Fold:
Amino acid sequence: MRKSTLILPAIAVLIALAMSSFFIVDEREKALVLQFGEVIDTKTEPGLAFKIPFIQEVVKYDDRILPLDTQPLEVTPADDRRLVVDAFARWRIADPKRFRRAVGAGGIDTAMPRLERILNAELREVLGSVDSGAVLSSDRVALMTRIRDQARTQAETLGVEILDVRIKRADLPEQNLEATFERMRAEREREAADEIARGNEAAQRVRAQADRTVVETVSEAQKNSEIVRGEADAKRNAIFAQAFGRDKEFFAFYRSLNAYERSLKGSNSTLVMSPDSEFFDYFKTVQPE
Structure:
């Protein structure tokens, strides 16, 4: 009975020791085996691994690609036009042993601020060497590659590989936006005023051409009408002359009647002249029936 009571606890202790001697490395992880705080082994392949219980411990790190979103950073490009840049990076732990020595027990939480400082320093250096136009244009792709390569070199001391760096946003500081908008508004208003002035000038030219055309057309019409009227008067006078040549007495009579008609128009016409005036010759010759 005593033997059985001793064997069972011993078996339990052995099982516990055996269970604490093995650990599993997931395919998404890398593991370090530490002995009294020193790294003695690195496990990068997934599967079952062994450690000495109570003497050695295991520290695991995520082997996947990790994100790093930086806080908005104010940079000053070469043309002194300040920009607020918001960037992010993708990174992974390339050397877990060096990573452990660089960041200690803090792990990823300690590495993130240090990576952000490296990334911010490279953002300031690279973007500060070019004009703001390059940051806001398609040249930004080449700038991001430069930032990635330079930050990757700095991050190697942490056992980290920076895979990609992207600029999400590059805007003017809030205090400069209103002034920039005012300049843009003034520029647009100036362009609008120029367009209006050019439109008014074109309209004046069109109106002047139209007025000239009207004057020329009216003048031409008046000239033609005067010619036609002159020709008609000439024909009329020729007819009158021909009629006068045939019967001078009838022509004189016709002219007198026209003179009477023009002089006695209206209901209250008055003529003051001598009774023996030649104007009334045909009145005098008219015999009452």
